[in-house]
Design brief:
single chain; 161 residues; mainly alpha; 7 helices
Length: 161
């Protein structure tokens, strides 16, 4: 395996893992584990969002970017609030969110895709990496919301320090 392949494979694994949670933090599956729809909808004082709202926000962007990857020329949002839709059904939201997170993980691990130029002329790996950072940022918020609600760690365990 050449040096380029080793770098590409390492990049793909590292960025791809961020969509699951990665080795440095809890996974999305674990962060959402055991959370009822009622608890997912709770907004603890003084935080601005519930877990469900945060997941709906990340899912909004997952869908948006998957559509762009599929070739749609979508307009940019005019206001940040447009990227915060109502969560809807919690169980359905979790299911599609985790499914789409896995799709991004696979894209990050696809060397050909990562090197393909996007509509702005940048390698798609740039957008994937930026979005992985966005996802992990909000994953940390989910953990903080659960901590504020007294619902951390989840049933399967999680970092507590």
């Amino acid at each position: 395996m050449g040096e380029k392949n080793v770098i590409s494979e390492t990049f793909g694994k590292a960025v791809g893992n961020l969509f699951r949670g990665g080795p440095a933090n809890v996974s999305w599956e674990r962060a959402l584990e055991g959370l009822s729809a009622e608890d997912a909808a709770r907004v603890p004082e003084p935080l601005p969002h519930s877990v469900a709202q945060i997941v709906a926000h990340v899912q909004f962007w997952q869908v948006y970017l998957l559509r762009v990857i599929a070739g749609e020329d979508l307009p940019s949002l005019q206001h940040a609030a447009e990227g915060w839709p109502a969560p809807g059904d919690w169980e359905e939201l979790k299911t599609v969110f985790l499914r789409d997170s896995e799709a991004f993980r696979q894209y990050a691990r696809n060397d050909e895709f990562v090197q393909t130029k996007d509509r702005k002329g940048l390698p798609c790996g740039v957008a994937i990496t930026n979005f992985a950072g966005h996802s992990v940022y909000h994953l940390g918020q989910v953990v903080s919301v659960r901590q504020a609600l007294g619902l951390w760690p989840p049933p399967g365990g999680g970092d507590t320090w």
